[in-house]
Hints:
Elements: H1 5-19, H2 27-30, H3 38-50, E1 54-57, E2 63-66, H4 75-82, H5 99-115, H6 120-125, H7 147-153
Helix pairs in contact: 1-3, 1-4, 4-5
Amino acid sequence: MLLTRQAQIAVAILVACARQDGRFVQTHEAAAGSGATKEHAAKVAHLLRNSGFVTSARGRFGGIKLARPAGSISLGAVLRHMQPNLTPSPRNRSRELTTLDTVVESGWLSFVALMDRFTIADLVAGRSPQRAACSDCRLLSPRTLSPDAVSSLQ
């Protein structure tokens, strides 16, 4: 699954803001880790502010900061706002859905549901993907599974 550059920058900005622990950070500093230009970072920060993820203040000590705790901002919510084509459009299509359409739509919905399990706080803390366990536990590396779980997969 590919994320747009804009979605990647948005997550990087939110993580940088979370690391500042409630203090304002300048937009270009928040996006520095993502390699974004100052202009692109400003555009993404504007979208994040309009979506309610960050607040902003002008002036010498201004910048952006998280609008709510990092633990309450799910990656799925960020992706739905920053990459709206990630979720399927309503079913008022002019053509009949094919089996492939249904499978792809189901995959996208599963991906977004998985992203809803993780928050910006998880990324800041560098937590392992133990909450990624889904219907196919083989998606996790054996290092994140208990020995009993590994033996049950073999």
